[in-house]
Amino acid sequence: MITVAGEAVIDFVDEGGGRYRAHPGGSAANVAVGLARLGVPCSILARVSTDALGGQLASHLAGNGVSLRDVVRAAEPTTLALASLDGAGQAAYSFYFQGTADWQWRRDELPGALAPDVTALHAGSLTLAVAPGARVVEDLLAAERARGRVTISFAPNIRPHL
Length: 162
Prior knowledge:
The protein has helices spanning about 25-35, 50-65, 135-145, and strands at about 1-5, 10-15, 20-25, 40-45, 45-50, 70-75, 80-85, 90-95, 120-125, 150-155. The protein is an alpha/beta fold.
């Protein structure tokens, strides 16, 4: 089992005419879905909102074979990203993440140790960069590294303006 720690966000993609379509996304969620689609047993360690968009994220993850056993359902709203193309055809993003579910980790929400069936822990992207939860997730990685039982990887796909 690979556990993926990180964010699960809703990407609103500009379809033109002032219309946006919601798509489940986020670095960690995308990695977990990709692993599951390849037949790799995986779980996601994420804070997913109890709001309607969080429900959409949970359904998307579970529907693609990602185990939700490590999900913490959170009262804070879902993180949003707006994506569109500018006049030059370059992607432009706006993030709405202040006070949202993904970044509010508390020590008591994370396991003291990963489940025995976990062989690898992957942490992604903004989860390791956005306070206040970044330090808590970093501490989990350090503890698992010290245990020496799982392979640890991370993807530093960090947006500088965040």
